[in-house]
Specification:
By secondary structure, the protein is of the alpha+beta class. Helices cover about 30% and strands about 35% of the residues.
Length: about 130
């Protein structure tokens, strides 16, 4: 059975809900969402957005409270390398189109924690620099 035909798991539904919250948050911050769940081979970027400063590649981490560690801490160096590789492929393909012109490129982490009906959003713009990954 293909991924799209699978019944969504609780984890998948939590991730989608977190990404929905993240997109709404970014739009309120002045971003325009270009892509959600961008795939390049086996690599994926949760959200690609653009604002007046440049293109943002956003990794969304969704959790239900209480959490043992902060969600943004789970974006390991390996995960950063994978996102960076996918971002380079994206920029190679779309980087010259007018709406996706990359003035600056940012690698952000956006953590969404659900706690008793409340949503806590923490945004870490420029969370890491790929040069040092």
């Amino acid at each position: 059975m293909k991924d799209k035909e699978r019944k969504p798991t609780a984890r998948m539904l939590l991730g989608k809900r977190g990404e929905d919250v993240a997109c709404s948050f970014l739009e309120r911050m002045g971003h325009r969402i270009l892509e959600r769940n961008y795939r390049s081979g086996h690599l994926e970027i949760d959200i690609i957005s653009v604002d007046g400063y440049g293109v943002h590649f956003v990794e969304v981490k969704s959790r239900v409270a209480p959490v043992a560690a902060e969600p943004e801490e789970s974006v390991t160096r390996l995960k950063q390398r994978k996102i960076t590789t996918a971002a380079l492929r994206y920029l190679h393909r779309y980087g010259r189109s007018s709406e996706r012109e990359a003035r600056e490129v940012f690698f952000d982490v956006l953590a969404v924690t659900f706690d008793k009906g409340e949503e806590r959003v923490e945004w870490f713009p420029g969370a890491y620099i790929p040069l040092y990954v």
